[in-house]
Design a protein that fits this description.
Its EC number is 2.3.1.176. This protein is an alpha/beta fold. The protein is built from 15 helices and eleven strands. A nine-stranded mixed β-sheet has the order 3-2-4-7-1-8-11-10-9. The protein has a two-stranded antiparallel sheet with strand order 5-6. It starts with a strand and ends with a strand.
């Protein structure tokens, strides 16, 4: 297997785009990535497109979503594969692009994530079935055969996880609010973030309750956006790129669906994917300089600290208290603002994380730059079943110069 490098990245600002079709978001992200790589778009030999909501939100069949996004912008005729893996869709698309180059089948590959989640009121009222898919997450990303039928929702599940974490380890709503405050402060320095206004502890704690103890400002928003990354062999990248970023590990793990005594405070796919990624990269958690983790809810970020090995079980609250995950801390987490503040266009998030880590490793992250970053991690966790996530993507990137 050949070594692979990221040579170009690009993304839209995340937000609400009622006036734009998904392919316009895709075009902006791909154009920026191609420009960043310094290549002609015709050099791209294969593409993988992450998306989740096309069928529910965009009135178009998902099976040809990738072709619909890329053919009109000059990338027709090449192999294009659409990838749907819940919140891990873009991470899975990125991994496929990496494998296509690593295997030697292709020299230049594109990973694209694009999602249009916002619909205006008229569109929602036109189709009650689509409206139910948008507004009720159970049965969509959750287990439709059992938990989904009984009304499980993502806020409800993570509210239960937060309560369990609080009972087991003494975590408090204040610790959850600290995550939201940190990430919004970081997003204020990120021109790509959906929300760029800092919030206070009291604002987070006093916001509308969604699923106790999670308030509105402890939950990620619905978001539109796209992100793209171009990868090529390390040998080829060294000849045309001054700051190539090596893909040291790209891992996708799924739940085993085995009976367990899971206490809601652990996501085993995250543990398994993290451990495999560390093994592939030949590093440990202490070697990570910057991490992008899947903070769909504030409790999620704390659980991921523990499952990824940044601290022992039950010690996440201490990490956030001491500021260890702040920019400038022991291991900065979500310096972009995370899903909570940068936004979460589900099928685009994983590639957007790759963009952010790439900028940090190159020293191009502006005010939010993690100084001296040489190794970065991305993490996404998608779906729910058997009291944990279903699919987890972890990538480790490092400077190659």
């Amino acid at each position: 297997m050949r070594q692979v490098c990221v040579v170009g990245v690009g993304m839209t600002r995340f937000g609400k785009y009622l006036d734009k079709e998904p392919r316009w978001l895709a075009e902006e992200a791909v154009y920026k990535a191609v420009t960043d790589a310094g290549i002609n778009h015709k050099a791209i030999e294969v593409a993988y497109v992450g998306n989740v909501a096309a069928g529910a939100f965009c009135k178009q069949g998902f099976t040809i979503f990738g072709e619909i996004m890329l053919a009109p912008i000059g990338l027709g005729g090449i192999p294009i594969t659409s990838v749907s893996n819940a919140c891990a869709s873009a991470s899975a698309a990125f991994r496929e692009a990496v494998l296509a180059v690593a295997s030697g089948h292709h020299d230049v590959a594109l990973a694209l994530g694009v999602e249009k989640m916002q619909l205006d009121r008229a569109e929602l009222m036109m189709d009650e079935r689509r409206r139910s898919k948008v507004m009720g997450m159970g049965g969509n990303g959750a287990d439709a055969e059992l938990e989904g039928q009984f009304g499980i929702s993502f806020p409800g599940f993570f509210g239960m996880a937060a309560n369990r974490h609080m009972k087991l380890y003494g975590t408090t709503p204040e610790h959850l609010a600290m995550v939201s405050v940190k990430n919004r402060k970081n997003a204020a320095k990120n021109p790509y973030a959906q929300f760029q206004k800092p919030v206070t502890m009291s604002e987070v704690l006093e916001a509308r309750m969604v699923a106790y103890p999670l308030t509105f400002l402890m939950c990620c928003p619905t978001t539109d956006g796209a992100a793209a990354a171009i990868v090529m062999s390390k040998e080829k990248a060294a000849k045309m790129c001054s700051k190539p970023v090596e893909v040291a590990a790209s891992v996708l793990k799924t739940a085993t669906f085995e009976p367990s005594q899971n206490d809601l405070d652990t996501m085993r796919p995250t543990i398994h994917a993290g451990q495999e990624a560390y093994r592939q990269a030949g590093i440990g958690p202490a070697d990570v300089d910057v991490a992008l983790v899947h903070d769909c809810f504030s409790i999620s970020e704390l659980i991921h600290y523990e499952d990824l090995g940044f601290c022992k079980k039950g010690e996440a609250k201490t990490m956030i208290e001491k500021g260890e995950t702040e920019i400038g801390g022991r291991i900065p987490v979500n310096p972009c603002g995370g899903l909570l503040s940068k936004g979460h266009p589900v099928g685009a998030t994983g590639v957007a994380q790759v963009c952010e880590v790439t900028w940090h490793l190159r020293g191009e992250a502006g005010e939010r730059q993690v100084e001296g970053a040489k190794i970065g991690m991305t993490h996404t966790l998608g779906g729910l079943s058997h009291a944990e996530g279903v699919a987890c993507g972890v990538n480790i990137l490092r400077r190659a110069w």
